[in-house]
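Lab notebook page, bench 4
Experiment: in silico fold of construct C2
Operator: M.H.
Input chain length: 302 residues
Purpose: comparison with the prior construct
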Amino acid sequence: MDPSGRKYSEHFAEFAASREDIQAPLNQLHQLHSRYLQLNRQFQEESLALENRYLAQYGKVFAERQAVINDEASKGIEDFWLIAMKNNGTIAEAISPTDEEALRSLRDIRIEDLGQVQGFNLIFNFAENAFFTDKSLTKTFLYEYEDGYSGHLKPGKTVGCTIHWKDGKNLSTLAAQSPADGTIPPPSSFSSFSSCSQLRSSSNGSTSDHIYAIGDEESTSFFDIFDAAKSQGKEVNAGAADEEDDEDLLNWELSNDFDLGEEFRDTLVPDALYWYTEEARETGFISEDFETEDEDEDEDEE
């Protein structure tokens, strides 16, 4: 442990012990890096506070957007969110035909910050539909700091919610049924949200007594992303013979879970209009680049 109180990693301790000739400067460098990590964490926390302040302002704009999309007087824009999602390649891969009717009742997708906690809620608001009674479904994404020298944030865990299905309308069950021709239906967009109450990162098997990973062949509905009551995940028991492989699978599934959640947060929700019109799909558009491209075209015309 250096004077700042930060523990030496096993690798660093062994390296320093093998180099007694430069052990003192190595320890000094370790202490300086510890100071850097403290500053970097402070930077990340202050950046989060700034981001959260702007998220509140974004929310006001997006609330007006929701009102336009769902305006009953003008009939709004039918299937806006379903079309936008299907035009996004990452998200479209997760949507199966069995989900589409339910997704047509999707009225809004919102991002909610978690205050000082590193993470976000992904909230889907639905109109009355034939499949479930819930008005909104929420998926929570929580980050944690990496151990070791980087101090960066990494996926920590996800937490789903319970879906109250109407009789005979559980899409997780319907999507898992093969068509009459025997072909296997494509994975549903809700599969990636299946957390089996929660999906947690594991680097040493000590994060919990039982760790659940998604990815069973039966898990084929997009709505599994939310369904905390389901137990379709694979249980990974600490101390199992293939524990390392199970942890690799768990972390891979968790990474995929976050990839999809971040695609909604960073791309689909802020740039929903351009995903709906397909402009984002055709140009690889992100909002920061759009004005720059327009300005370059204006300069060329001049």
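Observations: The domain at 78-281 is CATH 3.30.1120.90 (Arylsulfatase, C-terminal domain). The first strand starts at residue 106 and ends at 113.
Next step: discuss at group meeting.
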